[in-house]
């Protein structure tokens, strides 16, 4: 559309989104969207290719963005008994069994689920207050980063979590 996406959800909206997403029927798309949220706003395309460390201690993402000739291994720690750990369960190795040729289609399905939840939120929040405008996966990623910074998490930590500024330039 040529529009810049600058939607930033409030913490209350992020919580509402999480509740609504958790209430949707269990599916691979739902799990990918929840893991993206609970892993700090990871990119959907990278999560669909992600693995879990053999001991279950980390989500392993191959970050191929930027000018890299080889993808960088991006480790996201998984703490026992949190929501991320519960979603990952006892999985090790490849998180999803999706052929590379089907990653884009799977990403579109996850994005579609996010849009569905966004539409339900555009009426009212679960606590009855008016909601904001529609949003997408990129808006969620931006919102999570903003919420972390507002909570006092340093820019260095958020940049590392979201694979920003690792080559000296933040996008």
Helix/strand order, N-terminal first: HHHEEEHEHHH
Rg over alpha carbons: 16 Å
Total strands: the figure is 4
Please give the alpha-carbon distance between the first and last residues: 20 Å
Low-confidence stretches: none
Outline type: globular
Mean pLDDT: 85
Helical content stands at 40-55%
Structural class: alpha+beta
Provide the β-strand percentage band: 5-15%
Largest sheet: 4 strands, antiparallel
Question: What's the arrangement of strands in the largest beta sheet?
Answer: 3-2-1-4
What do you see in this structure?
The longest helix is centred in the middle third of the chain and has 19 residues. Helix content is 43%, strand content 9%. The model has no long low-confidence stretch (mean pLDDT 85). By secondary structure, it is an alpha+beta fold. Strands 3-2-1-4 form a 4-stranded antiparallel beta sheet, with no helix packed on it. Helix 1 crosses helix 5 and helix 2 crosses helix 5. The protein is globular and about 45 Å long.
Brief account:
The protein is of the alpha+beta class and 171 residues long. It contains seven helices and four strands; from the N terminus they run H-H-H-E-E-E-H-E-H-H-H. Helix 1 (11-22) packs across helix 5 and helix 2 packs across helix 5.
């Amino acid at each position: 559309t040529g529009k810049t996406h600058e939607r930033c959800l409030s913490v209350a909206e992020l919580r509402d989104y999480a509740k609504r997403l958790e209430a949707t029927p269990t599916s691979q798309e739902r799990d990918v969207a929840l893991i993206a949220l609970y892993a700090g706003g990871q990119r959907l395309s990278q999560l669909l290719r992600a693995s879990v460390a053999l001991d279950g201690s980390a989500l392993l993402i191959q970050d191929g963005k930027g000018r890299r000739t080889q993808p960088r291994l991006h480790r996201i720690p998984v703490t026992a008994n949190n929501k991320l750990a519960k979603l990952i369960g006892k999985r090790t190795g490849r998180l999803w069994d999706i052929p590379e040729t089907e990653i884009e289609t799977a990403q579109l399905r996850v994005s579609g689920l996010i849009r569905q939840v966004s539409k339900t939120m555009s009426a009212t929040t679960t606590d009855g207050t008016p909601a904001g405008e529609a949003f997408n996966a990129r808006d969620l990623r931006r919102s999570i980063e903003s919420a972390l910074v507002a909570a006092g998490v340093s820019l260095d930590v958020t940049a590392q979590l979201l694979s920003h500024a690792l080559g000296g330039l933040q996008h």
